[in-house]
Design goal:
With 250 residues, this protein is of the alpha/beta class. Helices cover 32% and strands 23% of the residues. It has a single domain (3-249), classed as Rossmann fold.
Length: 250
Amino acid sequence: MTTETQLSDARFPGPVLVLEQVEQRYGRLSPALAGLDLSVARGEFLVVSGQGGSGKSVLLRLLAGLETPAGGRIRVAGEDLAGMRPRVLAHLRRSMGILPQGHCLLEGRSVLDNVAMAAWVAGAGLDEGLQRAKAALALVGVDTERCAALSCGQLPWGQRHCVALARALVNRPALLLLDDLLAPLDDACAARVLQVVDQFCAAGVTVIATARTPNDTLAPPAGAGVPGTPASTWPARARVLRLRDGRLDA
C-alpha cells in the first residue's frame, strides 16, 4: 500500500501526521521552528495560531513536503516525509489540499482554469476537471456564472482566497493544509468557508489551519447574545494550539 493510499484510507491505524523534535533554520537566524512534537489524528481539525513571522507558514510547507526540516522527523501515514522520492512525494500531494500563503494563482488564467488545472494534474479528464472546478467554486461561494471566465488578476483579494481554497478542495483531499484560512475574508465569507471546511472534517478529512490569533472571531448572528459580542469561529471539534518562539503551546 502506498503512502498516498494510506493517507486516504480510513482503515489505516495510527495518526495521520507525527512530528518528532522538528526544527527549521534559515542560515544563522534564530530557528523558525524548534523542537516541535505533534500528533494529528485522522479527521481532526487542528488550528495553529501565532503572530506574523511565528513560523505558521513554515510549518505547513514542511507538512506538505515543500521544505525539508533541518532536524527531527515528520511522518505522514507512518512514512518519513524526508525519505520519500520526489515522484512518491508528488503523488502524495494529490491527497493533500493546500491553501498557500499568497495563493499562488495563475493571474493571467481564468478562475475556472486555475481550479480545474489542479484536477487535470491529478488525472481528471477535461470535462470532469471543469465540472469539479465549478462544484468547488460554488461550494466556497464564488459565482461561477459571473466570475468563472474572469482572470484571477481581476478579482479582489478575498475572492482570490476563495478561488485558492476551491483549488485545494477540488481533488477531494484526505488532508487539508490551510494557511491563514479566514484572515482576508469578511464575516459572511468567513462563516461560509468555515462551514465548508468543517463539513469536510466531519466526513473524515484531516484539517490543519493557521490563524493569526487563537480566537479569530466573526460577528454573531442577529439576535444572538449581547449585541457587538463576537462569537468564536472555530467549531467545537477544533483543537487550538499557539505557535510562539518556534514552539507549540496548548
